[in-house]
């Protein structure tokens, strides 16, 4: 039996009161009709002006279908159960009835979204104020609070999220009745809906203006979390079917371990964007954590059972060790929720009984040694046999035609309201004089509110006389340092993520030896990333190829183009579908979403291992017009002969050495100066990849050599015209050419 979490389906919705304005061909008559403005309930035919009868009919149908959904999920319908069953074609399940309503509503909504966005003229001067409550906000933010967003995409996203949630609830309902095949199919279908939301719908949704905390259901990453939860539950249904068919316990162990792996992925994504922000209810995290623990325990029970039935000597001892370790790991992990407790207690009791029987048999019959250490015990293998059923959105075939917005004719004195813009009257306005109904064109500086803008440091590189304006530049780099070895580079709008560490700490899998956290951009998460065009990996070790970050990133962006060292092939191939591995001297061209291009050429970096091993990578990144080139190698280790003919306007390099006894971890100082001289660099952007909050034995013996000031002094002697630009973590540093 699996745990169940029904909160995602507890969404509520309502239609707000809104202001509707009547337009006129004449400015003065529009002002005089101000008093005719009145309140309406939001219905689609009043929001979108229908241009023909078929459009009006479809909009009315859309309103009616949405009203039925609203009344059902808000439990405000006055329709008798028998009538509702008759209207739903004899369906008795409330969940089935709601699914049918959504499956009729969604194609109509898809059609409206398509025509309203493609025409760019889907509005008639009225804000779309359909509101939804959140079912997954933290307790103190939930309750009956409704949040609205004026984008049609908000309604689209929330309706799809509700559809996925009800599919999942229906799957649970069917599961309890024993129809495992249909239940698994419904879970896979729900996973497909959430995956579609994650990839296609929610990324384009903009937050409402002034909205403090958007509903977590509008976060694409949460839909990805729900996708993996539904897949885990689908595999749970498959596991129950395998139990009924008396499949081997070895297979059952693998399937249970596969469920845990899917939940691990959900938990990793949840942590990557939730973290300290607490934007998601802790109940969801508890559900995932306890479900992981339950399936880990169960997979080890099946593993012990398969070992017990094995023919090898020593397997009984291994089985006992596996069960003891499983029970040790589950200590203190009992959930508070009563229904979950019952499932946990039943499983723990089963494991205890199995362990007692094995210990008795071993004491009387087998006399096998029981391993103690974790490294001496086998671990369950994982096998995932389910995949999301692709959600293919349908839309109605009606071609929607909207009335064009009438633009008022403005005199010169009236252009303060905005030339050639529709005249929209709010209920209260300082522009109208209520006694004369004529526009107040007086201007006061106190009425003018300028938006606050945070400006980043900008350096304009000019060949010849200084530039008068940076707007005439052709090529530019915006470099945002995320501490450690991590960067975001914006090359003429093409965005490259470099060696990211954005989930958890840097510990190389041995936190007792070394464990480091960022100092300044601690709260920067995967969900804060801009739309990326490329992922760039320099080395195969954890401080560059950070699997805690790359696994959830690959789930968010599985098709993200990646350029990497071939040394990382075994790590990246299971994660990303489009990886280009460059040997030193090889190059590849990438194209951004905005059409910008950049050339990336690999150079030889440090050799991490025996001398015959392939070196790691540095990179030369050249902008589209070939007027700016950046060189990056995060250890300041380079092959002088291979770089002899290369030039780089911008050099990103560590400048302070990091030393272990008898070994240089990261070079810098005079080596960085010679590298800048070799590349004839004009700008040096120092890295501070050793300045992390670290602990562990290694951190206590790492020593720094040199300072920023000593580097600048060395540089001034060799390259007096070069400039040192120190990047502030989290803030873009811009370098551009005319």
From TrEMBL:
BRO1 domain residues: 7-687
SMART domains cross-referenced by the UniProt entry: BRO1
InterPro entries: BRO1_dom, BRO1_sf, RibonucZ/Hydroxyglut_hydro
PANTHER family: METALLO-HYDROLASE/OXIDOREDUCTASE SUPERFAMILY PROTEIN (PTHR36142), METALLO-HYDROLASE_OXIDOREDUCTASE SUPERFAMILY PROTEIN (PTHR36142:SF2)
Protein name: BRO1 domain-containing protein
Native organism: Papaver somniferum
Lineage: Eukaryota, Viridiplantae, Streptophyta, Embryophyta, Tracheophyta
């Amino acid at each position: 039996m699996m745990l169940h979490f029904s909160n995602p389906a507890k969404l509520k919705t309502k239609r707000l009161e809104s202001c509707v304005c009547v337009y006129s061909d004449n400015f003065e008559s529009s002002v005089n009709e101000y008093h005719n403005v009145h309140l309406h309930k939001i219905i689609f035919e009043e929001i979108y002006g229908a241009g023909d009868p078929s459009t009006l009919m479809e909009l009315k149908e859309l309103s009616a279908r949405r009203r039925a959904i609203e009344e059902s999920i808000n439990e405000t319908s006055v329709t008798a159960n028998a009538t509702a069953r008759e209207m739903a074609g004899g369906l008795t399940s409330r969940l089935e009835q709601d699914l049918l309503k959504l499956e009729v509503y969604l194609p109509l909504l898809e059609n409206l979204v398509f025509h309203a966005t493609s025409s760019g003229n889907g509005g008639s001067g009225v804000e779309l104020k359909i509101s939804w409550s959140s079912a997954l906000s933290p307790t103190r933010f939930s309750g009956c609070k409704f949040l609205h967003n004026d984008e049609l995409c908000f309604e689209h996203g929330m309706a799809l999220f509700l559809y996925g949630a009800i599919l999942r609830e229906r799957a649970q309902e069917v599961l309890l009745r024993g129809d495992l095949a249909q239940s698994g199919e419904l879970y896979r279908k729900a996973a497909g809906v959430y995956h579609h939301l994650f990839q296609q719908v929610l990324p384009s949704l903009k937050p409402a203006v002034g909205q403090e905390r958007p509903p977590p259901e509008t976060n694409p990453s949460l839909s990805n979390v729900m996708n993996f939860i539904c897949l885990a539950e689908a595999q749970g249904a498959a596991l129950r079917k395998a139990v009924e068919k008396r499949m081997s316990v070895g297979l059952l162990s693998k399937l249970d371990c596969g469920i845990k792996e899917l939940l691990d992925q959900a938990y990793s994504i949840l942590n990557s964007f939730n973290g300290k922000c607490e934007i998601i209810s802790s109940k969801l995290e508890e559900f995932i954590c306890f479900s992981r623990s339950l399936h880990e325990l169960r997979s080890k029970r099946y593993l012990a059972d398969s070992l017990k039935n094995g023919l090898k000597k020593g397997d009984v001892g291994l089985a006992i060790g596996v069960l003891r370790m499983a029970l040790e790991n589950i200590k203190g992990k009992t959930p508070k929720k009563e229904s979950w407790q019952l499932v946990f207690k039943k499983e723990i009791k089963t494991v205890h009984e199995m362990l007692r029987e094995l210990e008795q048999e071993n004491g009387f019959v087998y006399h096998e040694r029981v391993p103690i250490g974790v490294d001496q015990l086998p671990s369950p293998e994982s096998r995932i046999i389910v995949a999301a059923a692709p959600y293919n959105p349908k839309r109605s075939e009606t071609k929607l035609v909207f009335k064009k917005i009438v633009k008022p004719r403005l005199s010169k004195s009236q252009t303060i309201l905005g030339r050639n813009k529709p005249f929209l009257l709010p209920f209260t306005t300082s522009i109208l004089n209520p006694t004369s109904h004529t526009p107040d064109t007086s201007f006061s500086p106190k009425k003018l509110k300028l938006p606050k803008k945070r400006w980043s440091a900008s350096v304009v590189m000019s060949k010849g006389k200084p530039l008068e304006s940076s707007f005439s530049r052709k090529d530019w780099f915006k470099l945002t340092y995320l501490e450690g070895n991590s960067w975001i580079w914006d090359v003429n709008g093409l965005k490259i993520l470099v060696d990211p560490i954005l989930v958890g700490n840097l510990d190389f899998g041995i936190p007792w030896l070394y464990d480091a956290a960022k100092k300044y951009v601690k709260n920067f998460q995967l969900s804060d990333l801009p739309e990326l065009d490329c992922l760039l990996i320099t080395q195969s070790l954890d401080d560059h190829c950070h699997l805690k970050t790359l696994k959830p990133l690959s789930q968010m962006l599985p098709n993200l183009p990646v350029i990497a060292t071939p040394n990382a092939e075994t790590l990246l191939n299971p994660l990303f579908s489009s990886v280009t591995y460059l040997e030193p001297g090889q190059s590849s061209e990438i194209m951004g979403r905005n059409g910008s291009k950049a050339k990336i050429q690999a150079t030889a970096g440090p050799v991490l291992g025996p001398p015959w091993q392939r070196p790691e990578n540095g990179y030369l990144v050249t902008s589209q017009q070939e007027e700016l080139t950046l060189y990056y190698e995060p250890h300041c280790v380079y092959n002088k002969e291979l770089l002899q003919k290369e030039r780089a306007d911008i050099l990103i390099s560590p400048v302070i050495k990091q030393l272990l006894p008898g070994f240089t971890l990261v070079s810098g100082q005079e080596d960085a100066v010679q590298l800048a001289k070799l590349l004839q660099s004009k700008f040096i952007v120092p890295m501070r990849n050793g300045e992390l909050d670290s602990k562990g034995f290694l951190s206590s013996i790492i020593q720094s050599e040199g300072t920023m000031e000593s580097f600048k002094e060395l540089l001034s002697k060799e390259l007096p015209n070069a400039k040192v630009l120190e990047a502030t973590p989290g803030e873009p540093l811009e370098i551009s050419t005319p």
